[in-house]
Amino acid sequence: MHFHGLVTDGAFSAGEDGEAVFHPALDLEPGDFEAVQAKRCHRGLCWLHRQGHLDDDALHVLDSSDHAGGWSLDASRKLAGALMCS
Length: 86
Fold this sequence. Notes:
Blueprint: E1 10-14, E2 20-24, H1 30-50, H2 56-62
Antiparallel strand pairs: 1-2
């Protein structure tokens, strides 16, 4: 098996003046996580397509609403003492 993981403390959105507003993961609702997962999946698949790793057919299948494209988001776990990069 082979896994890649991305761990975050929250998500950003655009504020009223276009500034980045941070939303801690503990304050997000299930719908927020679904929106982040959908956007991350779409952007990741488009990047793979631009780099030549996916052809048009594969992109269409993986980016369909009934397929997660190999991406998933599990917001049910919190990692205590997670390392922070500076």
